[in-house]
Design brief:
CATH architecture of the largest domain in chain A: 3-Layer(aba) Sandwich
CATH class of the largest domain in chain A: Alpha Beta
Distance between the termini of chain A: 31 Å
Oligomer: homodimer
Helix content of chain A: 40-55%
Largest sheet of chain A: 6 strands, parallel
CATH topology of the largest domain in chain A: Rossmann fold
Number of helices of chain A: 13
Shape of chain A: elongated
Number of strands of chain A: 9
Structural class of chain A: alpha/beta
Strand content of chain A: 5-15%
Chain lengths: 295, 295
């Protein structure tokens, strides 16, 4: 495995995902300089103050100038604009990767914004990590320790560039896996995007009840756990839901059908049917998490 | 406040809820003898071994004989049978209470099974506490510490009996509040029963996907928290859903309408609408749990 060395990292988007990768690479001592850009000046200054970046840039174009690695960690809907703004200054041997939760829309945005010679420099990736907190203050160096990062390399990518992205994520402590772009978007719609939608919807459904204050007062621990992800960043999740709606809408329909099935079992007082449905869910859930529940 | 003293507690149902109340009262030194009944002999013996009860009984009738307090902690659908089996041996001054998650169906069952002189001895209650574990081994003395117990006294209850149930729960460390029976069932449908249904449904929806193994492999922390309650006891939840279906089916419809609304926003690519829906949910969730998130 080649030793990782980054002369200049351009960080576009200075929140939890980008900031944490920068801190991880800095603490591993593999990066020379980190130049950062975010739309808000206050965010750039805060990121510098926190040591996420060494130097703020005034534009995407300025940030990527002279960088050998560009990491895009903005909300996914903003990535098209980011790609468009780097075409003039991107070095021909620079490697681009990203942290977007949706891959199809991001690849399409790169291909629409850049000439092929440049979008081939983009190796799409998705770290499966995060907390419900966001922004530069949420970043920490060990966010990726033991977490999975899914790379969705394009057929047009240079294999040595793909290997380099892998090595970089390993330095940050992550476990790297590969998927195709469409498969990634399907799997993530199920495991991440749908649960977020279900949690946002549940909180809003209860908030619209006349008895909302009382209802929330009596909410027990289960509700708290269940809805933690509803505290996630709204703009980020709007972007994800829109960017992956081709996968997410059918996945939501699949969930709606399941809930309709439970509704029918209740309506017909089908005691055995309900018990079986709940027992199946418990068996799946227990099998999934039993090995991990010991630590 | 009168000092609590229980000469003989009859515990019907020897799982987490009943066993934990017994351990709490025993450790407070306020109970003389605990006689326990559960349908399974093995459960009775295990409960005795664990010290949840001092003596097993072979029937409900035998367990309640000579008891001044009867605590029913079986699944709610079994409570009708329990009431019917105690009419011959219940002492006229005995106090009955329960731990059922649904109150309307349990009150109706008591009124159907017992003469009025007896069901007036029943002060319905619901401790808002629990874990996803069940059975006698899950019981522990501090389960109710700082947790809410909702009593739903009947107009026919003797106020001194209501006060006695309150005092008993306070000995166990709980905070006692009152609601009417229908209001309890409405509020709990929202805060507890619907979230369980949503979690069971989500796990089953994903388990039915062709890619189920891969899907679960990539499930992140949010999914794990979100679905923890899907590990709850299936028979208990079947009972709750059926016993409270008059409240739960409309509450589920309310949730389905909310999810359909999110679906429409995605279909029409309504970026502002989606962001607003997610921001509302985040604001509600953050306001709810911010005070507690510091510990």
């Amino acid at each position: 495995m080649t030793a990782v060395r980054i002369e200049r990292l351009a960080l576009i988007g200075l929140g939890l995902i980008g900031g944490s990768l920068s801190l991880a690479l800095k603490s591993a001592g593999v990066v020379g300089e980190v130049v950062g850009y975010s739309r808000q000046l206050a965010t750039r200054l805060r990121a510098q103050e926190l040591g996420l970046i060494d130097r703020p840039a005034d534009s995407v174009a300025e940030a990527v100038q002279g960088a050998d690695l560009v990491f895009i960690a903005t909300p996914v809907q903003a990535m098209g604009g980011v790609f468009a703004q780097m075409i003039e200054t991107l070095a021909p041997d620079a490697l681009i990767t990203d942290g977007g939760s949706v891959k199809g829309a991001v690849v399409a945005a790169a291909q629409a914004a850049m000439p092929e010679g440049q979008w081939r420099q983009f190796v799409p990736g998705h770290p499966i990590a995060g907390t419900e907190h966001s922004g530069p203050d949420a970043a920490f160096a060990t966010l990726y320790h033991g977490q999975r990062v899914i790379l969705t390399p394009l057929p047009e990518n240079d294999p040595t560039q793909v290997a380099r992205v892998e090595a970089i994520w390993r330095v940050a402590g992550a476990v790297v896996e590969h998927m195709t772009v469409p498969h990634h978007d399907h799997v993530l719609a199920a495991t991440s995007h749908l649960p977020h939608l279900a949690a946002f919807g549940l909180v809003n459904a209860l908030a619209r009840l006349e008895e909302r204050y009382e209802v929330f007062r009596y909410a027990a621990g289960g509700f708290r756990d269940f809805t933690r992800i509803a505290s996630s960043d709204p703009a980020m999740w709007r972007d994800i839901c829109l960017a992956n709606r081709a996968e997410l809408v059918p996945m939501l329909d699949h969930y709606l059908a399941e809930l309709q099935g439970l509704r029918r079992l209740m309506e017909s007082a089908d005691s055995d049917g309900l018990a079986q449905a709940f027992a199946e869910a418990k068996a799946v859930r227990d099998a999934l998490y039993r090995p991990q529940s010991t630590h």
